[in-house]
Design brief:
Largest sheet: 4 strands, antiparallel
Shape: elongated
Distance between the termini: 153 Å
Strand order of the largest sheet: 18-26-25-19
Number of strands: 33
Strand content: 15-25%
Structural class: alpha+beta
């Protein structure tokens, strides 16, 4: 037979079994996804839930699914009766004593917080905590304490015949007297309280408490413990305090003597003392810097500084100065306090009672409310320099006011932006007295206690002056043609001046202690203003563009009278030869009022390094001159 090659064939594929395997895998994955989703939902639920986990209890009281407030309310209802019904006994020296649960105090809020913390944690572990509580439960203790020592312990201690005596102490005016304790029998009360609380806690956590034998408390021999020296020192220690004047009641608050003792010395002294013996620890006394007697003897006894200035009118200006002086008069500054002129005398308006009086606005004197009150602030400033007090804020005028005997010792105030302030940098209270007498002299005196004998003698040195000018303004309504210029009295005439102000300190013997340059001030000149008829500018020699009389006067050319022809019936009229033209003589400029002349200044002591100039009022500001 002819040999034929056989055919190879593959076994048929098992399509049904492969399909079943894929389906099983998909089912497993779906189950895992569902389980993961369910766990995620559970975690979110636990995180957002405001309730305790299931199977949560405190001392056996079920708190499952309650909010914290609900759990607190339930514990308050059920707990007090539970621990009040319990009792624990102990024996000491053969005698049994009973401690009732009514002497306990339960920390219910602490128990609720512990139950809540058992269910708290991260988001991803919330499901595990929930399932763990569901399967195993969460039970927390309710912390118990004794608010005070149980009465049974005190009864047990009273049965001890040879009790330990603790160290006692008393305090008198000069010493701490310590009576050292005596060794004897005692109960370890702290250990006993711990054992009692542990027994109560165990009874509270069991629904059916077992019967326990009384706790055995041994009586021990104990040496007296060292007293709490820190606590004794806190009770004894008194900080020294100066006597001071109460500004409201004007009464002296008595001084306080400081009291203390050396703890280390007291401990060493007690160690050397036999039991039952007495030792005295001397008190350290610290007298204050200012005792009551010292303050009473020195209060306001010295004149630290006194000044007087002349007050110009009108009546409204005197009135304003009187009003401000009344508000400052009697002011008391305690050591370290700061005087504020604006705080006492402001606001500077009609609501505060001020009237309108002259003040400078752009160099012109106009009626302004509270005009004149700067004279009081300036006079007080001058007085504080004499008293050598610490200046906190001082501002100069734009123009030299003229009423201060020493140029540069003025102090302007303006609304709430510029104030005059100084500090009482002495150890004693000071009092300001000020008034305007019937002759319109303003008096300021600062009373205090002079502990140094040093006072100030402020003075100034003139560096230069700028004379005022006569300026001319055309105004035909005020001056007729050919009339003399008319001065405007509202514009004051002041020379400009630049000064350096120095504070010279002098001791009680008149010897110079030091000289300090305080500042340099420049005061502007204030020009007089005259009105003239514009037609007379050339005649008067006035330059209209500058307003100054700097040109050569030009006399007006006279107009000749017209000639007449005589008629035959009348005698001829002789026309007189015109005489020299009559012209108005140039107006004589009134002699200007003299600028205020500062008092003679002494030659300065060696000048220290320059200081920063004081601020000057802004041009639009009102100076209450």
């Amino acid at each position: 037979m002819e040999r034929q090659e056989g055919k190879r064939t593959l076994p048929p594929k098992s399509g049904k079994r492969g399909k079943q395997g894929k389906q099983a895998l998909i089912v497993i994955v779906l189950i895992l996804v569902l389980l993961a989703a369910a766990y995620a939902v559970l975690c979110v639920y636990v995180a957002r839930s405001e309730k305790l986990l299931p199977n949560t209890s405190a001392a056996g009281i079920d708190l499952s699914g309650l909010t914290r407030q609900e759990a607190m309310d339930k514990l308050e209802r059920e707990m007090s009766g539970r621990y009040a019904a319990l009792s624990v006994s102990f024996t000491c020296g053969g005698t049994e004593f009973n401690v009732p649960g009514s002497e306990l105090s339960a920390d219910l809020s602490g128990a609720v917080a512990a139950a809540w913390d058992a269910g708290s944690g991260g988001l991803l572990t919330g499901g595990i905590r929930y399932l763990s509580a569901l399967l195993g439960g969460v039970d927390v203790e309710v912390p118990l304490t004794f608010p005070q020592e149980p009465s049974a312990i005190a009864q047990a201690e009273s049965h001890i015949t040879n009790a330990m005596v603790e160290t006692s102490w008393t305090v008198d005016a000069d010493a701490v007297t310590l009576t050292k304790g005596v060794t004897g029998q005692a109960i370890d009360t702290s250990t006993l309280e711990e054992e009692l609380l542990e027994r109560f806690q165990h009874l509270l956590s069991n629904d059916e408490p077992a019967s326990y034998a009384p706790i055995e408390v041994p009586v021990i021999t104990e040496a007296p413990p060292e007293p709490d020296f820190d606590a004794i020192h806190r009770q004894v220690y008194t900080e020294a305090a100066d006597a001071y004047l109460d500004k409201e009641s004007k009464e002296i608050i008595p001084s306080v003597t400081g009291v203390s003792f050396d703890i280390a010395a007291a401990r060493a002294m007690l160690e050397r003392t036999e039991e039952g013996g007495i030792c005295q620890v001397p008190l350290d006394k610290t007298e204050p810097n200012i005792t009551t007697a010292k303050l009473e003897a020195n209060l306001f006894k010295d004149v630290l500084g006194s000044s007087t200035t002349e007050c110009a009118g009108p009546k409204a200006r005197w009135y304003n100065i009187n009003l401000a002086a009344g508000r400052v008069n009697g002011t008391i500054l305690l050591p370290g306090e700061t005087f504020s002129y604006n705080a006492l005398c402001g606001p500077y308006d009609t609501s505060a009672g001020y009237q309108k009086a002259g003040a400078y606005v752009g160099g012109k004197s106009v009626d302004t409310t509270a005009g004149g009150i700067c004279q009081l602030s300036s006079t007080i400033y001058w007085t504080t320099l004499k008293a050598n007090l610490e200046i906190v804020e001082r501002n100069q005028h734009r123009y030299n006011s003229g009423y201060m005997p020493v140029v540069g010792t003025d102090a302007t105030v303006y609304g709430n932006s510029l104030d005059f302030r100084f500090k009482n940098n002495t150890e004693y209270p000071i009092k300001i007295s000020c008034y305007q007498d019937s002759g319109h002299k303003l008096h300021v005196t600062i009373h205090g206690t002079d502990t140094t004998g040093i006072h100030g003698e402020p003075y100034s040195v003139t560096l230069g002056t700028v004379p005022f000018k006569n300026t001319y303004k055309p105004d035909a309504s005020k001056v007729p043609v050919g009339g003399a210029p008319v001065r405007d009295p509202d514009y004051a005439r002041y020379n400009g001046i630049t000064v350096e102000v120095y504070q010279k300190l002098v001791d009680k013997n008149g010897k110079t202690v030091s000289t300090t340059k305080l500042y340099k001030n420049t005061y502007r000149s204030s020009d007089a203003v005259y009105y003239y008829n514009p037609a007379d500018a050339a005649r008067l020699g006035i330059n209209p563009s500058t307003g100054l009389m700097t040109e050569t006067p030009v006399e007006p050319t006279p107009t000749p009278a017209p000639s007449t022809t005589p008629t035959p019936s009348q005698p001829p009229v002789v026309t007189p030869t015109p005489s020299a033209p009559v012209t108005e003589p140039p107006a004589v400029t009134p002699t200007p009022d003299p600028a205020p002349t500062p008092a003679p200044t002494p030659a300065p002591d060696p000048v220290p390094a320059p200081t920063v100039d004081q601020p000057i009022l802004p041009p639009e500001a009102v100076e209450n001159a």
